[in-house]
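User: Before I run my own analysis I want an independent prediction to cross-check against. Here's the chain; please return only the structure tokens and, at the end, one sentence I can use as a sanity check.
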Amino acid sequence: MLFLKEHLKGNEYNWKNNAIHSFYATEPDRRLFDRLNGNQMLFIINYFGKSLGRLTLRDGQKIEDLILTQMPENTKSELSVFNWLRGVYLYYGN
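Assistant: Structure tokens:
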């Protein structure tokens, strides 16, 4: 499943074009991650779901919630967000 804009629970996102990613051609790197940028949120949710081998609506919304409510402030890059998610999803994810 591809997690889309209409699947996001939050509505406080901005949709600036400077952080658009291809869902299939790129992977997280050292780009600055803005948790309120809807494009980046969709990118990281879909990339993380792909790494899990599955992504449901519930999984995507759980990942969104983790990023918005649990992610440490010092988690700055896409890569650090992805690595942080790998650690916490095992605990909170199921």
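Sanity check: The first helix runs from residue 38 to 52.
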